[in-house]
Amino acid sequence: MKIIIKKSTFNSKDFKKESDFMETIQMLKMLCQVNGVAGSEDRALDVAEKICNDLGPCKRTVHNSLVCEVMKGEEGAPHLMLDAHIDEIGLTVTHIEDNGFLRVAQCGGVDRRIVMASPVVVHSEKGDFPGVIGSIPPHIQTGEKKNPKIEDIWVDIGMSGEEAKEVIELGDKISFVGPFTELENNLVSSKANDDRCCCVAIIKAAEEIKKYWGENNLSPISLTLVFSSQEETGCLGAATAAFEINPTEAIAVDVSFASTPEIANKHFGWVYCDCELNKGPIINIGAVLSRRMSKRLAEIGKEKNIPHQVEVMGGGSTGTNADKIVSAGAGIEACVVSVPLRYMHTPIETISIDDVNNAAKLIASYAISEYAR
Amino acid sequence: MDEIKELALLKELCEIDGISGCENKVREWIKSHLPKDCTARTDARGNLICEKKGKKTPKNKVMFATHMDEVGFIVVHIEDNGLIKFEAVGGIDTRVVIGKPVRLESGKEGVVGAKPIHLQTKEEREETLKFSDLYIDIGTKSREETEKYVQLGDYIAFRTEFTKMGKYICAKALDDRTGCLLLLKLLEEDLEYDITVVFTVMEEIGGAAGNAAFSVNPDIAVAVDSTTAADVPGVSPSKCVSALGKGPVLTFKDRGSFSDRELFKCAKELCKEKDIPYQLKNQVVGATDATAMGKAGSGCRTISMSVPTRYIHSPSCVFNPEDYDSTKRLLFAMAKAYPEL
Q1: Which CATH number characterizes residue A280's domain?
Q2: Chain B partners of A278 at a C-beta cutoff of 8 Å?
């Protein structure tokens, strides 16, 4: 899909910056607002594929990850894999009550504090059906108010049992409604910014890398993009795609915590939260990650004046696809670059467009500096 | 419900932000849609009082009231980091607020944030938050930046799209814009008797309908409102208050008042006579403008009639357009019967 760049008023000297911004925001909006609940990523993948068609041949893996071969080097050439997961958290239909209410289970870590009265969409083969999450009303509850358990909520779709059973099937996925909202300071809020904003980052990085190689007539390396499925439910898509692609190096691009008052400068055992929005992508350090790659990224960021932050993920895992990529096949050297995000796993996930662009820039600069020969 | 004439109007009405104490946009909209043959004035509190002549002068002066305001929030503080602290206006459960998009009075859009699930302790996942724990993020980094868009005392509304959901409608502010539309439609009728229709303010925070009733001085006052429908899983029918699709909810008693026995009996008879489905509110919960109207001046006889609504006082209220239709039929019948009762 061609990205239409809206005309707006800006100085010609800011042209590059402004159009870059517009391009990112438009691509992000298209990607965020389609459904891609873990296990049903097709629509989001379709959008990603349309965007990537200009970059290189695309195919789907067994577990429905999208793989785009941006550059193909000769046998023995370095092979860089950039991964961002395409799936988003959501719900799945487990039971249809006789009175039409849908009972649900979660796909990924749904925050029970935000579910009440949340608008949702049920996606079935027969179409998309708007609904709202209900739970026991306050006047019925006794004792202390608690956040509802997933087994206690339902989705109301305004249908009788018969009508619902006609159009909805068990296993149909339910996505949250979270409008794409532009906030101040180049921030945007939407559902599924985890991890669609990183899908945008790897696309933009790949564009820049490919362009650099073309302009400078360099001997090609292999560069593969992976839009992986089912990260939120255990990283199946990335684990299997990494095995199949078998790159020499991989960067998993995911979101991480941007400070808000409850978490700012606090230590949560496995992570210390001091990264902020608009201060650039986060270079992660963790036991399973490649220290060499993390260090190089930080050096290049400094050299090229790309704003960036560092976050250490303690313990043996990072909570990202990198955990599974490193152990694929005979093992893969990998690191994580994160886009800081506020309100993770809610319909109002908030990120900075500038951070997305800088993540792309940092990754592209890394590839150029490491491999351009 | 007529798709174009009524549903489209209801959509417009629900999309207006009119939190208690800030109903002016709703009032202006209603004024611009009033039929030409009725008079309208706004009283000191902000109530819109409309009089319409019928063919006959009634024995009893009848006043119908419905409220223009909706529940929402008000800005109480702007933090140095730019985040906005707020309080509820009207009864809102914090659990329906977290993670929701909102709109500030200036039109600026924001979101209600909280700590992500990944960093919550086991206890935090169960505990509900207080309004003092919540804040609105519009993307600003400092108080100065926020103050370009927000002042203390500004109102904040939910930002939910008006959505057709199966047979039902899901929207913010259905409580009580459905009532506003119903009474607007009543004013458009060719009436048998003179009536007074009042679009009231501040019902969600205690009400100003009493002042309107004092100046109108009716014999009978009817509150047209929305009430809880808890016809949902895990709630026994005896505790559901009301149910969607079963027609207007007649109240014999709520937390604010008793309905007048004769008016209550007459309403039930009208339903039976005209084959209008109706239901009785089966829990003593909530209150309407009837409370204040009954007490105004030397008092008047009152009754409450409500449209059943699920997930009331949330960003996603749900109602059945069939209930609008049956409530409308009963309302029109009342306008004929009560003046001569």
Answers
A1: 3.40.630.10
A2: 141
Please judge whether B101 and A347 are an interchain contact, meaning their C-beta atoms are less than 8 angstroms apart: yes
Distance (Å, whole) CA B18 – CA B23 = 4
Tell me the chain B residues in contact with residue A183 when contact means C-beta distances shorter than 8 Å: 109-111, 137-139
Residue of chain B whose alpha carbon sits nearest to that of A167: B166
Instruction: Pick A147's closest partner by Cβ from B126, B139, B283.
Output: B126
Q: Is B203 a catalytic residue?
A: yes
Which residues contact residue B294 at a Cβ distance below 8 angstroms, ignoring those fewer than 6 apart?
B213, B221, B257, B300, B301, B302
Task: Tell me how far apart the alpha carbons of residues B308 and B306 are, in angstroms, rounded to a whole number.
Answer: 6
CB contact under 8 A, A263 and B119: yes
First to last CA, chain A: 32
DSSP B140: -
Domains of chain A: total: 2
Q: Pick the closest to residue A42 from A68, A64, A69 (CA basis).
A: A64
Which CATH number applies to B3-70+172-340?
3.40.630.10
Complex-level ipTM: 0.92
Condensed to tens digits (0 to 9), the pLDDT of residues B37-84 reads 999 999 999 999 999 999 999 999 999 999 999 999 999 999 999 999
Give me the residues paired with residue B78 across strands. B84
Q: Which residue of A has its CA nearest to B110?
A: A183
Nearest CA in chain A to B320: A158
Longest dimension (CA), chain A: 72
Distance CA A201, CA A285 (A): 19
